Amino acid sequence: MTAGDRHRRSPAPSGAPGRPRGWVTWPGGRRRAAPRPPWLAAASSWLRLALVLGTLAALGVFAGVPVLIVVGALIGIVILHELGHFWTARWAGMKVSEFYVGFGPRLWSIRRGETTYGVKAILAGAYVRILGMNNLEKVDPAEEHRTYRSKPYWRRMSVAVAGSAMHFLLAILLLWVLFSGVGYHGFDRPDLTETPNWQVARVVADSPAAAMGVRPGDRVTAVEGRAIEGFGDLRGALADLANRPVGVTVVRHGETVTLNGTIGTAPRDGVSGFLGVGPELAPPARANPLAGLGRSLSDFGFVVRASAEGIAALFSLQGLDGLLGPLVDFESNEVAVGEVGAVDPNRVVSVVGVAQIGGSLAQEDVAALLGFLAYINVFFGVLNMFPLLPLDGGHVVIATYERLRSFGGRTYRADVAKMLPAAYLFVLVLVTVGLLALSRDIVDPLNLPG
Predict the structure, then answer these.
(1) What pLDDT was estimated at residue 15?
(2) At what angle do helices 366-384 and 153-177 cross, to 10 degrees?
(3) What pLDDT does 309 receive?
(4) Which residues pair with residue 72 across a beta bridge?
(5) How far apart are CA 71 and CA 60, in angstroms?
(6) DSSP class of residue 139?
(7) Tens-digit pLDDT profile for residues 14-61
(8) Is residue 101 helix, strand or coil?
(9) DSSP 3-state assignment of 6?
(10) Bridge partners of 278?
(11) What span, in angstroms and rounded, lies between the C-alpha atoms of 226 and 232?
(12) Residue 369: what pLDDT?
């Protein structure tokens, strides 16, 4: 080491000023950087926020207002999830330092009390930062009593499950509004005009009915010789006719016509027969508030079970094959583009597909949109209870494990570092599934009826 090196490395003498703040080094020497006016920083922040709002407005112009409504609803659902964590954490006496909507570069923020609220560039989620969520975070000893990890088991559990609880409560509320306020025909039990003179009100595009020549106004009276009195009879007659050539008898302008074609497969289960006609419906029925609440709870339980089974099926070999197989033909190494979407019951959709489905339902009526948003809330709530970090279910498992290991006055704290490899692998799987679904929704868009 030379004397020059020692001179450059030696600290400044005691009491001597170091490099002043606000100075920058230029090739020609040192010059003072002009301070940024506070008004300029504030204007820049608001401008970035306006850019995001303008992007959403452009989405409404190019994709349509129904899609914009669904995207706004999804953002609102995510915010309510995080508000559940935020409110319960504050109620438990924990310190919440940040509440952000979105990820990536910060666009806008404001500080109120000890919490910074803001918006980030990628509106694909939200998060709250609670002090001391695990043993890896270093915290000032003076604030240790306000950490998540220092609180009793029931307090930590209330924070961990609050996000999913918010989804479930919102789903029940949406169903209650649907059944008691808007009125409904039923999700899979349409309240039809059960008269012998019922008629076809809609023919699904590119469906077996469209190929046969069925028209709105036709009245289906028989399928393969089996008499049809109401729409319920038609569904029963089609149940075991999937992929079979049949003759469909209709009455059109008072004349009886027999139409021939092949029955398709129902999107709802991939097994039953599917014709592709919509019936003339009776006016929506509204339940009284108490009966509507009972119906809401009943359908909520049904959707929870269906969501759990769907998530489990996704991570099965059959589910992964359904995700990967339709996207890439590994033998020819070519992207496979074809008739998918509504006729593909096992398809995994990304946020793009969700927005498209929701926009399509929003164009039908408010009831269809409310039912769809209720299902989305249940799905998010069930998924977040998956027992692995970084999902809420992972925190539930850790808190429960710590409670079981804490006895005899001894407090046990789990070493989260040992769980990180599994958490990283799980995140990798989720990101991979999301990117594959997004790629497929872009390359091979959903073929929705209507």
Answers:
(1) 44
(2) 160
(3) 82
(4) none
(5) 10
(6) -
(7) 444 444 444 444 455 555 555 666 666 566 666 776 776 777 677 666
(8) strand
(9) helix
(10) 202
(11) 13
(12) 85
Q: What is the pLDDT of residues 302-314, one digit of tens each?
A: 889 888 887 777 6
Instruction: Tell me the angle at which helices 65-91 and 38-63 cross, rounded to the nearest 10 degrees.
Output: 130
What are the Cα distances from residue 353, in Å, to 54, 140, 278, 447? 22, 45, 23, 10
Helices in 262-391 by DSSP H: which ranges?
A: 289-314, 317-324, 351-364, 366-384
In angstroms, the CA 212 to CA 225 distance is: 17
* Six-digit token string for 443: 């390359």
The residue type at 153: Y
Torsion, Cα of 445, 446, 447, 450 (10° steps): -120
Q: Which of 45-59, 255-269, 418-432 has the lowest mean pLDDT?
A: 45-59
Respond yes or no on whether the N-terminal peptide bond of residue 66 is cis (omega within 30° of 0). no
d(CA 203, CA 269): 20
3-state secondary structure (DSSP) of residue 124: strand
Q: Which amino acid is at 284?
A: P
Residue with tokens 């929870």: 304
Helix (H), strand (E) at residue 339: none
**44 in helix, strand or coil?**
helix
CA-based torsion, 343, 348, 353, 357: positive or negative: positive
Choose among 275, 180, 179: nearest CA to 234: 275
| Residue 232: both structure tokens together | 């319920």
* Alpha-carbon distance values, 433 to 71, 125, 230, 429 (Å): 20, 17, 42, 6
Give residue 12's identity as a one-letter amino acid code: A
Does residue 343 carry a pLDDT above 50?
Answer: no
144: its two tokens: 């240790």
Above 70 in pLDDT, residue 419?
A: yes
pTM of the model: 0.69
Whether the CB-CB separation of 270 and 182 falls below 8 Å is answered with: no
- Cα(356)–Cα(362) distance, integer angstroms: 10
End-to-end CA distance of the chain: 79
Confidence bin at 319 (pLDDT 50/70/90): low
Q: In terms of Cα–Cα distance, which of 385, 369, 379, 306 is closest to 175?
A: 369
